[in-house]
Amino acid sequence: MTSEGKELRGGPDGLAAAAPRRWLALTVLAVMQFMLVMDITVVNVALPDIQADLGFSQGGLAWVVNAYVLVAGGFLLLGGRLADLVGRRRVFMAGVLVFGVASAVCGSATTSWMLVTSRFVQGLGEALAGPAALGLIPVLFPDRKERTKALGIWGGLSAVAGSLGSLVGGGMTDLVSWRWVFFINIPIAVIALIMVPRVMAENRMARDGRRLDLVGAAAATAGLGAVVYGLLQAADHAWGSGRVLLPLLAGISLLAFLAGWESRVADPMIPPRFFTNRTRVTTNVVSVAIFAAFFAYMFLFTLYVQQVHDYSPMKTGLAYLPLTLTALLGAGTSTLLMPRLGVKPVMTVAFLGGAAALVVAAVGLAPDASFVGGFMPGLLMFGFFNGLAYPALINGALHEVTGQDSGLASGVQTAMQQAGAALGLATLVPLAFRHVDRQLTHGALPQVARTDGYALTFRVAAGVLALGAVLIVVLLEKVSGEIRDPLAEAAEASTDAKATEPSTGATT
């Protein structure tokens, strides 16, 4: 039931009239999404303190991050489709509740296994709440111009949240305790649970007897989970080892089975038509690239300033302030430019600029580098171009998506983000570590070896973003910043045609 006692299901496209309190609803959804995204990076700076307090081994400590990424990445598609079928508001609130309770347990953890288990549950909450929240935006904002603006705000806040996580994590760890990187989620979750029923209606696709494709759901969840697990294992093991190859091959096999199954089943979880849109597919592919580069950069820069320049957690967090501010500026610029230039030019500039920023960041790394002359140019540039990219990515990922599939499209995009994060940690970060080890065996000083290794990875990540820019130029369609809704356009055309028919004098 809605705040007015009604449930909105919409027409065949699942879109209803604009919600009267849609901007307030967007605020509530965006703040919760901000916390979900920030929770991926907020833990990084606190890891040494967590290890000391709970007695983690070095290998076990990685699972404080990996547990969240693994479950979120595996369940996001299922979460998105459940939101379409069961109700987006309902699934969002369930995810927020799970996330909030798990955050409380994380902050109260007294053993390593208790924290890791709670992080698994947190990831499940993200997998339910994230796609449902993003899937509500096309429903809340059926007007194309408003929808573009809303998606721009959403993408911008996601960009800022990823960079702000280190600042918040450092501040909480130094000033209070690492436990507060989890406790801060609780009041946000409570506010969301109170406000959501008051500012938005329930919404779901027109089911017409449709049921959840259980086989497809199981294959998608297990396949994505296995792929993400294999990528995470690649951070510590060789690519040819069984611990990497077996889950990767199993995951790919399950996803291949999923593709065949979905083409035959009557009510597929992921309709094959969803992947016929070239813009959506290209956007989701390049999303993997930019998230891989972003998370590798954040992870390695944090290690660099702490290991080479002896930054405290608080000082490390403050070092990200320039990146956070320019990410906000870039997101605002993207939202303003998309309606004028379209998605493709904005996304292309963002990827090329991000590649240039990583080259500048690599040049600025040195054992004796200063913050202003060495680190800041790369931070400023990388923050701006990442902020420029995210609103365009969200618009591209939801291009021509109707209300029927908005949750699914949101789940796919969020899953690609998680896969990108895992891929960056599995490929780019180990590349840096292997180079550091080689330098150390040849007698290099630790500070010099780390600087060279991290700079090498920044340059490789720049090449990944440049390749992404090429794919955008070649494959992305010319997409206006105003998202098309084909069914709504057909309805408008039908109405216009009837309006131009000669009058017969009859009344209805």
Write the topology of this structure.
Layout: E1 7-8, H1 22-41, H2 47-54, H3 58-61, H4 63-86, H5 88-108, H6 112-140, H7 144-175, H8 180-183, H9 185-199, E2 202-203, H10 214-233, H11 242-262, H12 278-307, H13 313-319, H14 321-341, H15 343-364, H16 371-397, H17 406-441, H18 446-475, H19 486-499
Parallel strand pairs: 1-2
Helix pairs in contact: 1-6, 1-7, 1-9, 4-5, 4-6, 4-10, 4-17, 5-6, 5-9, 6-7, 6-17, 7-13, 7-14, 7-16, 10-11, 10-17, 12-16, 12-17, 12-18, 14-15, 14-16, 15-16, 15-18, 17-18
Report what the structure shows.
The structure is a single chain. The chain contains 19 helices and two strands. 76% of the residues lie in helices and 1% in strands. It has one domain: MFS general substrate transporter like domains (Growth Hormone, Chain: A, Up-down Bundle). It has a two-stranded parallel ribbon with strand order 1-2. With 508 residues, it is an all-alpha fold.
